[in-house]
Design goal:
It is globular and about 50 Å long. The protein has five helices and 17 strands. The protein has helices spanning about 20-30, 70-85, 165-170, 210-220, 265-270; strands spanning about 1-5, 5-10, 40-50, 50-60, 65-70, 90-95, 100-105, 110-115, 140-145, 150-155, 180-190, 190-200, 205, 230-235, 235-245, 245-250, 275-279. The protein folds into two domains: about 1-115 and about 255-279, Diaminopimelate Epimerase, Chain A, domain 1 (Roll), CATH 3.10.310; about 140-245, Diaminopimelate Epimerase, Chain A, domain 1. By secondary structure, the chain is of the alpha+beta class.
Length: about 280
């Protein structure tokens, strides 16, 4: 599946336990010898969490085999699948970010409440206490936690930034003990920003949902935009609305294909997927 070109492998592992290992995530993420993805989403059984019934639990993996607590566009993709399956226009999903509400927004769009941004140094997290609006790096970026760490630079022209050169350097800066996603934005008007992104794990992606949320939070906190903005990404537009109950993200998703990993591939990895279905 993909959300604005931000592409995912989605494994339906309901009833199959926990089939994914770091090695298997890396193997599937290999675009030459596996399938390839920006992130991997694994759907596991739901249940009752803090008194709320959740349709499913969702785990996220980066292409380098490291786990992630959040992925906004992948959450929207999973929500679309499960809402279509259940014939409903809304449901709750359990993620490392917490329980997230997802809804059908009409016209083929899906929205999800990504929760409130984490605006403390240890919530991002950063390696030491500091103000988040302008952290001590060249360019004075803002830092935001959206269940994963983000470093947002407000620049004159996001198109002019060499993502492949700057992104890895900031991702691995000692200020970020869990590394970080890196966003570069420029303000078009008070309701529109342009964003490009280097995602943690080592890649330039066409979109990043949690990154769009973080960018909208940073520009709103600086007084540059309203709390509801359109974020223009390489893959298309996301509508971000920072409300009292959380940061809502709305955009399109697409199902590309369904299939199964071959026994030969699984044998090479040695992990086994217990019959999990791959989308």
């Amino acid at each position: 599946m993909h959300g604005l070109g931000n592409d995912f492998v989605v494994i339906d592992a309901r009833g199959a336990g926990d089939p994914v290992s770091p090695a298997l995530a890396r193997a599937i993420g290999n675009r030459n010898r596996g399938v390839g993805f920006d992130q991997l989403a694994v759907i596991r059984d739901g249940g009752v969490v803090e008194g709320r019934s959740v349709a499913a639990s969702v785990d996220f993996w980066n292409a380098d085999g490291t786990p992630a607590d959040a992925c906004g566009n992948a959450t929207r993709c999973v929500a679309r699948l499960l809402m279509a399956e259940a014939g409903t226009d809304g449901l709750d999903l359990r993620t490392g970010r917490g329980v997230l509400r997802a809804e059908d927004a009409g016209n083929g769009l899906t929205r999800v409440n990504m929760g409130q941004p984490r605006l403390t140094w240890d919530g991002v997290p950063l390696s030491r206490q500091m103000e988040l609006d302008e952290i001590p790096l060249p360019g004075r970026p803002g830092a935001v936690g959206m269940g994963n760490p983000h470093c947002v630079f407000v620049v004159a022209d996001a198109e002019a930034v060499d993502l492949a050169e700057v992104g890895p350097r900031v991702e691995h800066d000692p200020l970020f003990p869990q590394r970080t996603n890196v966003e570069f934005v420029h303000v078009i008007d008070r309701g529109t920003i342009r964003m490009r992104v280097w995602e943690r794990g080592g890649m330039i992606t066409q979109a990043c949902g949690s990154g769009a949320c973080a960018a909208a939070v940073v520009t709103a906190r600086r007084g540059l935009t309203e709390r509801a903005v359109t974020v223009r990404l390489d893959g298309g537009d996301l509508l971000i609305d920072w409300r009292e109950d959380g940061v809502w993200m709305t955009g399109a998703t697409a199902l590309v294909f369904e299939g199964r990993l071959s026994a030969e591939f699984m044998g090479m990895d040695g992990a086994g997927a217990n019959g999990a279905r791959v989308r």
